[in-house]
C-alpha cells in the first residue's frame, strides 16, 4: 500500500465488494500481518473506519484500478490476485486459497510482458502467496 494517488482511475472499474488490499498486504500502521483482514474490515464488506482511514489507505489503488492496459480478467475480486507498483518493483499478492492462477496462460502472458519491461529498467516482479515469495521469471 505504497502507491501514490493516481491522476485518474480507469473509467468503469470500481472496488465493489473487493477488499483484497485490506486483507493481503502487511500494513505497518495497523500492525496488520499479511493475509489477515484489517481490524477495520466490516463484516459485510467495506471499512468501519472509512472517514478516518489513514493516508496509507486513502492513497492506495491497485493497478487494476489505475492501469487500463491491465485486462479485465485481473479484477482482484474475480482473480484473487492484486498487482501494485512500488518504485521499480511490481508486486503480485495472491490469496492463499485460490491456488496459483498466475500460471494460467491469460495471466502469465501479461506478467511476462510486464516483467520484461521491468527488467529492462532494472526492476523485477515479485509474487507473494501465503508464506511463499518468488521472483517471476517468465
Ligand atoms: S485490491 Fe484493488 S479493486 Fe480490490 S479493493 Fe483494493 S484497490 Fe479496490
Ligand atoms: S482501515 Fe479500512 S481501508 Fe484501511 S486497510 Fe483497514 S479496512 Fe482497509
UniProtKB/TrEMBL annotation:
Listed InterPro entries: UPF0153_domain
Top-rank lineage group of the source organism: Bacteria
Protein known as: YkgJ family cysteine cluster protein
Amino acid at each position: 500500500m505504497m502507491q501514490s494517488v493516481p491522476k485518474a482511475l480507469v473509467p468503469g472499474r470500481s472496488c465493489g465488494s473487493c477488499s483484497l488490499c485490506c486483507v493481503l498486504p502487511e500494513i505497518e500502521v495497523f500492525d496488520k500481518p499479511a493475509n489477515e483482514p484489517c481490524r477495520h474490515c466490516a463484516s459485510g464488506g467495506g471499512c468501519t473506519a472509512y472517514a478516518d482511514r489513514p493516508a496509507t489507505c486513502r492513497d492506495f489503488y491497485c493497478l487494476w484500478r489505475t492501469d487500463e492496459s491491465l485486462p479485465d480478467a485481473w479484477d482482484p475480486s474475480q482473480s484473487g490476485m492484486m498487482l501494485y507498483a512500488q518504485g521499480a518493483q511490481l508486486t503480485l499478492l495472491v490469496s492463499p486459497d485460490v491456488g496459483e492462477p498466475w500460471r494460467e496462460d491469460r495471466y502469465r502472458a501479461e506478467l511476462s510482458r510486464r516483467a520484461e519491461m521491468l527488467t529492462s529498467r532494472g526492476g523485477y516482479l515479485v509474487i507473494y502467496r501465503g508464506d511463499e515469495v518468488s521472483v517471476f521469471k517468465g
